[in-house]
UniProtKB/TrEMBL annotation:
Residues 5-248 form the NAD-dependent epimerase/dehydratase domain. Coiled coil: none annotated. The keyword NAD applies. This is Nucleoside-diphosphate-sugar epimerase. It comes from the Bacteria. It comes from Jannaschia faecimaris. Keywords: NAD.
Amino acid sequence: MTKTALVLGAGGFIGSHIVKRLKREGMTVTAVDLKRCEFSKSPADRFVLGDLREQSLVRSVIDRRFDEVYQLAADMGGAGYIFTGENDADIMHNSAMINLNVLDACREHGVGRIFYSSSACMYPEHNQLDPDNPNCAEDSAYPANPDSEYGWEKLFSERLFLAYARNYGMTCRVARYHNIFGPEGTWTGGKEKAPAALCRKVAETPNGGTIEVWGDGLQTRSFLHVDECVEGTLRLLRSDFAGPVNIGSTEMISINALAEMIIGISGKNISVRNIAGQQGVRGRNSDNTLIRQRLGWAPSKPLRTGMAETYDWISRMQERADRVATLV
């Protein structure tokens, strides 16, 4: 019998890639989101447009047993959305409502396995003050001190999923994603993350121009290509390890160096100017000790390889947007 999967947040970046992977595996996939995929048609067998904050919608979708459920639906975005403080109430309320509704419906129908996408933003700020030596090992999460309400909500929801697993015998798996990037991700509009934002800036800037980078540019991060994110997600859900576990790259880089990498990929002669702006913690890098121990796997794709692929896609999107603007 063909296995069934439910992907929540399937109109978004990671969710849309998970749907494609599951369909390649031959699964029957139901997808749900507020919006359809922006950059390509979803191959899902059924795509439901709806608001997962509404209990009635969730119950109409989760009305039977699914073999696998991927819960990626959330109110989120890049630093310009998460760290200003202006969206904190919406971020916490919307994501918590979605998770509560989903877990109750899954419990009622005896869903097989449930994956929850947490974030490295839940790690304590005090462990990420040194850009050269951040501590993001899974056991460093407590005492808790995320630097944003987004991080606090993710921490709460991790505990929520694991509590349902303990109390109701559900099979829940929790991963902490570290800065996922790649083609078909948000690249403009204010919710894009650093790799996409920098690719867009470079793509739209003429030779000899200048791009702006928020902060002093010395803040560090690691970035994981979406294909490896999907691979790690499926491996975790189908394993006997509940998590939480990091799914991220250990190839740490400063934001200034990332900008220079993208400029090099573009072949342009562009300079970087640092300006005041939201930048989050000073340093963050995935610790992959636990995922290697428990899953026998860890991401390995070089950052430059993934960034070249991503820049090429965003550059083409920018050219298309410019053509449309010219016609208008």
